[in-house]
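User: Can you fold this complex?
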Amino acid sequence: MSGSGHGQTMRITLKVWRQDNPSDKGGFQVVDVPGVSPEMSFLEMLDVVNGRLTESGDRPIVFDHDCREGICGSCGVIINGVAHGPERGTATCQLHMRKFSDGDTIAVEPWRAAAFPVIRDLAVDRSAFDRIVEAGGYISAPTGSAIDANMIPIPKPVADASMDAAQCIGCGACVAACPNSAAQLFTSAKLAHLNLMPQGQPERWARTEAMVETMEQFFGSCTNHGECQDACPKEISVDFIAMMNRDYVKSKRKNRQLLSQSI
Amino acid sequence: MTTTGYLDGKVPTGPIDEKWTSHKFNLKLVNPANKRKYDIIVVGTGLAGASAAASLGELGYNVKVFTFHDSPRRAHSIAAQGGINAAKNYKNDGDSVYRLFYDTVKGGDFRAREGNVYRLAEVSVDIIDQCAAQGVPFAREYSGLLDNRSFGGAQVSRTFYARGQTGQQLLLGAYQALARQVHAGSCTLYNRTEMLDLVVKDGKACGIVVRDLLTGEISRHSAHAVVLATGGYGNVFYLSTNAKGSNTTATWRAHKKGAFFANPCYTQIHPTCIPASDDFQSKLTLMSESLRNDGRIWVPKNPNDTRPAHQIPDEDRDYYLERRYPAFGNLVPRDVASRNSKTQVDEGRGVGPIKNGVYLDFGDSIDRLGRDVIEERYGNLFQMYERITDEDPYKMPMRIYPAVHYTMGGLWVDYNLMSNLPGLYVLGEANFSDHGANRLGASALMQGLADGYFVLPYTIGDYLAGMLGEKPVSTDDPVFAESENEVRDQIRRLLSVNGTRPVDSLYRELGVDIVWEHCGMARNQAGLTQAISDIRSLRDEFWTNVKITDQSESLNTSLEKALRVADFFEMAELMCKDALDREESCGGHFREEYQTEDGEALRNDDRFAYAAAWEWTGESGQQRLNKEELTFEYVKLAQRSYK
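Assistant: Here's the predicted assembly.
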């Protein structure tokens, strides 16, 4: 393969969080990184750094990543204080070094949230998200029980709104960006995806109550900062949080009514 | 090579459209109260694994589910963009189960098993119903009914989609169904846990040995049956559109424990990916094939044309697919589109800074339909392209080039999706069964979900019914101890090499310099022979010169990668061996010695109408060939033509 796209390279200083294990105190390591091509993705820059660390006998930086197409939600770090870095609507893997300049110092940290304990370096444990989904983030449709798909027409605007919410990649940037480490955007996106759909109606109120209350076991409370929406690589709207709050209040009454209890 | 063995795919007899129905009736059943007495291991949580685990859990089996990801939702199925095929004929354009079957057998260049393909087409309609019921937000018309688009290799619109994120939405549907079973207690989830060996006792699969990626702990798990849904081996090329973690370790270790590996040379090169930009490139990014619905592929007629694309007038452009294949135009199958791009670039007409791409131009469609329509159809793809290349595809044509995307080969399975090892089932991309030598677009999602939702839950009962009352093999059995020791030994060996080259440096050389070079889009005898010898010497270097500086038991990403790459080194050799052995061109396997005058793939049905299932004999590269003869009763063997 030939030389880099534009021929010029940058020199950056990386201040990267190193923490050997969950109980280690951790701290920043400063790494001088010459020869960075603007065409590199942020993670490719970290690959290069890891190759050099290995060659010099150091331990490479641990970070989660997989698809590198901004869809699997594995990656995500705080770059200069901002979840996923400076480009809006972009996951870390889709951020390119052309967004930085020669001579920049770049600080890289893991998501910071009590519900996302650090595993090692930049990798955190986000399994609390799975617990929220397990609590009710589904439509119960056992295999084989479905009717013909066109038997339930769904108005296009409804399907589109549901898809807007369903795009969430579960990366956790919303939690990392929130001053309260709240998971309202993640939870409300899943609720809106399912609660907007006609298929989602039978379990709507039970789902809402169970997911919100499971969320509250792990995460902080929402105080409407809106940082989550700004950090979200899929630019999911905080309007879904309003919808969730409304559904949650209603769910308290509806779930009792469904049991034929008056309030 | 020792004598060739023959294999029986166990396709039921009878007319093709009745095989599956009568087979389901003939399969033994496990009664509902007995299902909880069976343990099943599912490895992998992509479309096939998650759908299988959820469905088995719903039936009442005890399911243990393993994934190396932090969450089942991360599996690489999530990255599929364009859509999923189903023979619903909602468009009234002449589609049918038979036509989807026909298109798939023909698209696969007559190297798939007819019985399996028909069943796939048959259950495709149920998949759409199932996913819609789960709340998958498929694209809709204003009427509220489901929308379709068309895809390569078909002349009907049968592809269902959810914007450019169909794989994501289908996977989330399966993941949520699995989450429901985890909550119900029928499925137990082991995340960040990687399978490192298959355990076999008396010829039957009875469990696995895994490594906890967070603690380094090695543990043993036994079950009545083991299901592998661990994806393909495309990352043997280092650069592919696969996620960085995708690997062949689970299937390769199963192969080394006796499971036959079939047709490893059938690899698919996807025509519409973003061309590589440099040596640091860590992976390639695919742009959905659906773009070929509205984009026109061209190169400048004059290789030395330096004008920007929009200043090149129509008469100086060569729309080479439309010219060569008037009937299918830009929608020819993937292998045909890819080879044509390669020809253009090889002949010096490539575009872009290093002349390694062709144009995919939306100018005409934007003029005809308006920017809004194009944005609605492909907005997220255009955005992704711009992020990566810093070019605006609404104004400049995209630059695309083929990249490794999918592997049709995989572990050999019979009609029940059981490998030659009783008790070992293989689903989705990990098996070899349905796509022959080339997969049509939007068929991977279909196959993964067909296997997981609608095939395995029926067929596995037939095997389990015969084991009623039997306990799974104890994890204290010597076969488990032996497997565990092998795994520990390999880890110790890798960590003790302490050489000079990081894993990625050796891995890149294997994938890019050897496998892509000699066993990529075009292959020949001399190149493959060379590749095999190069792979062997680089493998020796890997085991004596790899450098892993992290010696810890905890999350050790270098060790994880080294373990996977060690298997790619053996896998690569078998792939080249298979490619060398198959002296014909078919689908994704293009041998330069065997082509028509027009440069199209030239099959040799007299000699090679079989699936090559390779049997491990104890040493890399010394596999023994077993053949499953393929017969075509319904789709007549013919040279494919998309003209």
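Residues 56 and 165 of chain A are 45 Å apart (CA to CA). Residues 10-120 of chain A form a domain with the Ubiquitin-like (UB roll) fold (CATH 3.10.20.30).
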